[in-house]
Design brief:
By secondary structure, this protein is an all-alpha fold. Helix content is about 85%, strand content about 0%. The longest helix is centred in the middle third of the chain and has 50 residues. The chain is rod-shaped. It comes from Rheinheimera muenzenbergensis. Belongs to the CcmD/CycX/HelD family.
């Protein structure tokens, strides 16, 4: 589609609000999904490290008790 000016481009034939709102909402949701995934990955790594450390402490305690 060819636009005569930048204002025509931003207006999108009268549908600019809906077009740009949908683009903005899409990018906002994608950014939120990426952020949440990163947070979940860090939380999982932290939980795994804590679990391995706890299992190591239990193993050391059991070896000392014998």
């Amino acid at each position: 589609m060819y636009f005569q000016s930048w204002s025509d481009f931003w207006a999108m034939g009268g549908y600019g609000l809906f077009v740009w709102l949908s683009f903005g909402l899409t990018y906002l949701l994608l950014a939120g999904l990426i952020g949440y995934s990163h947070y979940q990955q860090r939380a999982f790594s932290r939980q795994l490290a804590e679990r391995l450390a706890r299992e190591q402490r239990i193993k050391q305690y059991q070896e000392q008790s014998e």
